Amino acid sequence: MKAFAIALPTLTLCWVLQFTLISTQTLHERTVGTSTIIARISPPWPDPSGIAVSRNGHRVFLGFPRDPYNHATCALAELLPNGDIIPFPDKALSAPSKKPYAEWIVSPNGIYMDRDDVLWIADDGKREGFPGVPPGAAKVVGIDIATGIVVRTIVIPPDIMTNDTRLNDLCVDTAHGVIYIANSGFENRSSLIVLNVASGRGREVLLNHWTTKPDPGFLVFLEGVPKVLGVDKFPSGGVDGITLSADGRTVYWTINSARRLYSIPTRLLSNFTASERDLERAAIFEGEHPPCDGITTDESGNIYFGAVEHESIVKRSPNGRYEVVAHDAANFVWPDGLAYRDGYVYATMGQWNRLGVFNAGVDLRKPPYLVVKIKV
C-alpha cells in the first residue's frame, strides 16, 4: 500500500448533465429512462462503491474501497452540490494513517444512512498488497452527519471476520437496534452478519447455506461476454445486496453469483436467541432477480437492483413484476452501490469487471467513473 497521508484535492465536476434516454430496437442497443450524472470522477480518485443520501436528500456520501486496488486518496467522502468531493468527516478518519486500525476507515464497501441521519460504514479492513485483516481494521463505523462525530465503532470479532470474509453491503434496523451485513465471502464463506449496536455483540448466520452462497456453474453475460463461475475470472461471490423494507419488518438480500432473491422477518433475524434452524425455516424465496450488485427499496415496497448483466437499474414491484427504469450500455457498466431518496435512485457506476485481475493483468477501466441520479 502507498501508506502515506496526502493533502486531498477536491474534484470539480466538469458539468452536470441532464439527459433523457431514447429507445431504439433492442435493450442492448437502446437507452431507457431519465438520468442525471451528478459526478464524473477521474484519477487520482478511484472509482466509488458505496453511496448514501441524507434524509432531506441534500447530502450525498461515497465510499472508496482499497481492496480491489490500494489508493492514497480518501476512503469516505461527501459529494457537494457544486460537484466537489471532500473527505468526510475529515482526512484524519478517511485518509491512510499510521494510527490503530480501529481509528480510521481502511476499506469501506457498503455505506448506509439510517433514519436518524447517522451514516454507517462497513469497513472490510482489507487492502490490496496487505495479506490478512489487521486487528481493528474490520469494523462498522457510525458517523452523525450533522456533527461529523463518530458515534459508534463496532470491531468485527476474529471468529466472524476471517480472511475469507468480505463485508459488503449493510442496512441498519433502528427499531431493533441491529445492523445486518452481507458477507459475500471468498472461497466458501458466505453469510449474514448481525451486530447489536448497543452491546457490539455479533453473530454470523446462514453460513454457507443455500440462501447465501453462489450457484455452482453460474453463468452471467458482462458487456456481452459470457462468464462462468469456476471457469472464468469476474467479480463473484455470495450474498451481496441487502436492504430493509420501508416498514422495517423485512430484510431482503441477493446473491452476487446467483439469481435468487430472499427475505426474512427482522423480528427473527434481530433476535440473538433465534436458532439457526429457525432462521433457515424463516428465509423466504421471493423469486429470481437480475444478476446484480447493490439493491435498495422505496416507501412503496419496490426493490431496485443494479443489474450488471443488463447495464440497467431494474425495479421489482410488490406484485413481483419487473421493469427496467434506466439502461445505458455505454455508461452503466457495473451498477454498484444504490440508495433511494424521495423518488430518485442514486447509483455509483463501477467498472469492477474491467479490473486487471479479471483481464489477464490488463486494466480495462475507462475513467471518468460516474455517479448518477435516476428519477423512478
List the helices and strands and how they pair.
Elements (H helix, E strand, L loop, with lengths): L16 E4 L13 E8 L9 E3 L6 E4 L12 E4 L5 E3 L3 H4 L13 E6 L4 E6 L15 E6 L4 E7 L11 E7 L4 E6 L7 E6 L5 E4 L13 E4 L2 E4 L10 E6 L5 E6 L4 E6 H4 L6 H7 L1 E5 L3 E6 L5 E5 L4 E5 L5 E6 L6 E8 L2 E7 L18 E7 L1
Antiparallel strand pairs: 1-2, 2-27, 3-4, 4-5, 5-6, 7-8, 8-9, 9-10, 11-12, 12-13, 13-14, 15-16, 17-18, 18-19, 19-20, 21-22, 22-23, 23-24, 25-26, 26-27
Annotation, overall tally of beta strands: 27
Tell me what portion of residues adopts beta-strand conformation: 35-45%
Q: What are the segments in which pLDDT stays under 50 over at least 5 consecutive residues?
A: 1-29
Classify the oligomer.
single chain
Please, what is the average pLDDT? 91
Shape, per Cα inertia axes: globular
The helix-strand sequence is EEEEEEHEEEEEEEEEEEEEHHEEEEEEEE
In percent, how helical is the residue content? under 10%
* Cα separation of the termini: 40 Å
Which radius of gyration do the C-alpha atoms yield? 19 Å
The profile of the biggest β sheet is:
5 strands, antiparallel
Order of strands across the main sheet? 1-2-27-26-25
Number of helical segments with 4 or more residues: 3
Class by SSE composition? mainly beta
Describe the structure.
The chain is mainly β. 4% of the residues lie in helices and 40% in strands. The protein contains three helices and 27 strands. It has a five-stranded antiparallel beta sheet, with no helix packed on it. A hairpin with a 2-residue loop joins strand 15 and strand 16. The protein is globular.
